[in-house]
Amino acid sequence: MHAWPASEVPALPGQGRDLRIHDTATGGLVTLAPGPVARIYVCGITPYDATHMGHAATYNAFDLVQRVWLDTKRQVHYVQNVTDVDDPLLERAQRDDIDWVALAEKETALFREDMTALRMLPPQHYIGAVEAIPGIVPLVERLRDAGAAYELEGDVYFSVESDPHFGEVSGLDAAAMRLLSAERGGDPERPGKKNPLDPMLWMAAREGEPSWDGASLGRGRPGWHIECVAIALDHLGMGFDVQGGGSDLAFPHHEMGASHAQALTGDFPMAKAYVHAGMVALDGEKMSKSKGNLVFVSKLRREGVDPAAIRLALLAHHYRADWEWTDQVLRDAVDRLGRWRAAVSRPDGPPAEALVEEIREALASDLDAPAALVAVDRWAASQEERGGTDEGAPGVVSRAVDALLGVAL
């Protein structure tokens, strides 16, 4: 599966700072100091309805991570999946009387268009669950043969008790995990499981649903968590720098994935930091496909909204915060974009070197994009009020905003 085209990232003078970022597993800030190649895995969409503001906010956060790393002169090895077979996709296809493969392809293509418009840097490896199945099957077999998984009526489940570190990603107690498991695709009430929290690794073929050859597992399809584990281990290996996604993925998805990988390899941890973006609400409720309260990037683009303004609307909120999308949020972003473009269009301006360093420091401090925006606001206001004599300053600001914030002025 192919990703989307990369926008050019301008090179800036000097060098950025190492990223200090909130790690869900430890509950505090950690300083990431990768080697020459920084490794990141971000969980992708289930393509039955893309791309709403919740998606955009999540991928914007991890785009900033990439930009901070690139500014430190590192290379970035970024991997993202597409869950192109799963219950919600099949249910939507059945509801709309459309082939599930065609639905997945259509929504994935739209997601690529939105990511391109928003200047999100693409992953080096963009892998669908279906194409990963040949690599998933052997992992499930290994877990079963090692006693870390078991069969139940043809399905194969992972035993969470096989990983001594289970629970260390989310930090939740068993009761909270059980509630979230039921809400987020698990089946804690199924009779016969060794532990109610045990997640499915391989679902035996169901009548009327797609299935694939699973060798000794029989025909079926993979569970949600093992999909990402197979892709991450194949392309990044254990101990990669950041596992990213929305905060609703901390449990069960990232918790279970970490345990799968740790049971498979005997190594710990799967990722050095588990980083989670906040949720975006509309009319007081979290934006979600199940509720249908969605604001789509593609719809805004069709209405003529500049993608740079959409991106500024996202950047105005700290990535870990839960926040609400409103018309005023977008109006403020449009106004800000206009002020910035007017400021950099002038032939000279106030010196910009200190501003570049201020943006770098804000982003290195747990991706504090709102502080970076305020810094650019101050420079633009000074340009409007007093002007300046530095002929190169507007160009420096334009390149810095592009390189570090992904906003083209």
Supply the key terms:
single chain; 409 residues; alpha/beta; Rossmann fold; Four Helix Bundle (Hemerythrin (Met), subunit A); 2 domains; five-stranded parallel sheet; four-stranded antiparallel sheet; 14 strands; 16% strand; globular
Write the SSE topology.
Layout: E1 19-23, E2 28-32, E3 37-42, H1 53-71, E4 75-82, H2 87-95, H3 100-117, E5 125-128, H4 129-145, E6 149-152, E7 155-158, H5 174-183, E8 200-204, E9 220-222, H6 224-235, E10 240-246, H7 250-265, E11 271-277, E12 280-282, E13 285-286, H8 297-302, H9 307-315, E14 323-324, H10 327-344, H11 353-364, H12 369-386, H13 393-405
Parallel strand pairs: 3-4, 3-10, 4-5, 10-11, 12-14
Antiparallel strand pairs: 1-2, 6-7, 7-8, 8-9, 12-13
